[in-house]
Amino acid sequence: MYDVAILSDFRYPGGTSASIAAEVHAQAEAALSTVLVHVPSPHQPRALPFSPRISELLRDGVATLARDDEPVSARLLLVRQPRIFTEDLALPPRVRAERTVMVINQPPGDAGNPYRYYDFAAVRERVHRYFGPDVQWAPISSQVRDQVRQVAPDARLADGDWHEIIDVAHWWRDRDGFVGDLPVIGRHGRADAVKWPRDPDEILQAYPDDDALRVRVLGGGEIAVKALGHTPANWDVVRFGKEAPEEFLRTIDFFVYFHDPDLVEAFGRTILEAMASGVPVIIGAHFRPTFADAALYTTPAGVPALVRELYADPARYRAVVSRAREFAERRYGHQSHLTRLAELGIRPRISGGTSGTSGSSGPAVRRRVLMVSDNGAGMGHLSRLMAIARRFPADTATVIATQSYAASVAHQEGFLTEYIPSRKVLDFAKPRWSALLRDRIDHLVALHEPDVVAVDSVPHPGIVEAVQAHPEITWVWVRRAMWQRGVGAEWITEGKVFDHVLEPGEFAGAADLGPTVADRANAYQVGPITFLDESELLDAAAARAELGLDDRPAALLQLGAGNINDIASPVGRICRHLSGHGFQLVLAESTIATTPMPRIPGAKVVKLYPVSRYLRAFDLTVSAAGYNSFHEQIGFGIPTVFLPNTATKLDDQVGRARFAAATGVALSVENPALVELEEALDRVVRPEVRAGLTRRCAELGFPNGGAAAAAWISGLPARSEGFGG
Asked: ∠ CA(303), CA(308), CA(311), 5° rounding?
């Protein structure tokens, strides 16, 4: 038996498929199994393929496609798209479910004709015939609810709307200023005439033909061009599907959406996507019930003035972005979907994997561990926790809660993942942020009922308050060493609130001058922690084949997320110099980078996690000296030139890099602006130098402390009577 079955026509190209994909991913994060039941709609062309979003779900294994001749059994059946049932089905679906919800994601009609799209009574009769009389009918929004009530006052509708959801961590982009020298307004969506204002004058009011701004349209722009009779010179019309919406939204400053006055927009998913991406939205006032104060409301004629106002006031612009982002996460984030599933009796499985059905067997859960990470500049906090969690015994269930942009990476690695927006993202004052952090941790504790909470973060006030509020839980501070000298002593004092301290090992520990040294006797110490063991790395041939590299020597540039210091400036010099020595270049772009890696002619840019899986492909690396990359390069014996990030507030990357150079396991360049950079590169390209570095790494190698950390945490006695009461 599956947890959730979703029945729909999976060929719809727009919001229907996007909504299904979002719910499937949320269910996968909660380790709930999903089966997709395809029923062709009589209103779709026969030859139309599945939506790419649906194909991706099936390809990635986060959902299963039911065969036509296969009976399906599920705890919950979700049916989407009422128009499927405007005619009798040629092959009624063989689905048996404990509960069924019909999601009314399209209204029966519009303002001009309330019966334009389907006869609600006829659709209801067929749905009850196929699935029984106890189907729960759930409108997707108040607008749809009102339309249904207009044609069927007797309809028994669910009390709450089955609203859209979105993975904000996937869509969010931390913007650094505007796109260009002129405001860029835009919109995206499927090509449909009703998605545009009927009056050409209103089209030009909302999307002006004005040299003082630019207009970008992804999908449907040809409809507006036909209505206008020409393409305005400042318009950039992009065919639907030519750019991914996530990437398109990075190219505009304002999302502006107005449509035909008769259209009853069921929800407005593209609006939600813009909010989640950090783009202010300007829309009509009829959307207010759905988006409250998170959007800006005006008429088409009011758009240019509002755009100019915000473009001239960056502080107000950022405030609008932060408000919308918080709203999207709070009201329409993945947790809202898991909450409504729980109300229907389907709770998260709290498992480290995303596969399997509810009938699958496995070890009984003995312990639950909640792991909480800070946002950080890179992925150090989150990667350490995942490195430990993936080594827990099979009877230990794990939930990852992170402030990092890389929450989606944790989900892709198979963890049930909760996202907590960071103070930077929300732009909150410290007191308000502390209260929110405390509330979110309280909520996660109540939802997941952990025995142990492991925190890889400095003890912010919100965390300290949460620890003090839950003495029944065992609390562990995962405290990385190698802090800057003279920084952070107050955190050591605040950290006394934890029951235990776990200290991941540090190869450069002998050079550690930070405040954790004096408190080391109170910590449980393990070896340096890396996400992968050496045995999990691809061999050189396989790694090169996957990266598309040829037989020339190869170099990897891994300079961090670019969220603190400017990684772009030395990249070009490094690439030119190594290319001159015959090396092919690969630039590793962090999964949480807020500034795209500069494109260098002849260099390949990859976005992989974990990059360490491919290290055997490279003859050398040029790398930052963050905890993860530092210990991976040395632990796996990769000849490396370290360029330490000197702008970190707490992490002493300079101390690490100096120690590595002093012990002969790597080269180090502290100021890449000087000729010292080229001198180090001239050394590391020499085969005998690289061989010496690899040999020295082997001599001073260390075991991975991840397994020891996992065994220790999973073996801690619970403060309460133990899991399960």
From this structure: 120
In one-letter notation, the amino acid at residue 200 is P
CB-hemisphere CA count at 13 Å for 494? 16
pLDDT tens by residue, 310-350: 999 999 998 899 889 888 888 898 888 988 998 898 887 64
Q: Where are the domains of the chain?
A: 2-151, 168-332, 362-525, 534-699
**How far apart, in whole angstroms, are the C-alpha atoms of residue 129 and residue 150?**
23
**Assigned CATH topology for domain 2-151:** Rossmann fold (3.40.50)
Domain 362-525 in CATH 3.40.50.2000:
yes
Rounded to whole angstroms, how far apart are CA atoms 567 and 365? Answer: 44
Residue that the structure tokens 């999601």 belong to: 103
CB 221 within 8 A of CB 237: yes
Helical residues (DSSP H) of 299-429, grouped into ranges: 303-311, 314-332, 334-343, 380-389, 407-412, 423-426
Q: Is the pTM of this model over 0.85?
A: no
Contacts of 500 by beta carbon, 8 Å cutoff, 6+ apart? 474, 475, 476, 477, 524, 716
For 121-141, the three-class secondary structure string (H helix, E strand, C coil) is: HHHHHHHHHHHCCCCEEEECC
| pLDDT over 50 at 172, yes or no | yes
Pick among 3.40.50.300, 3.40.50.9100, 3.40.50.2000, 3.90.1150.10: CATH of 534-699:
3.40.50.2000
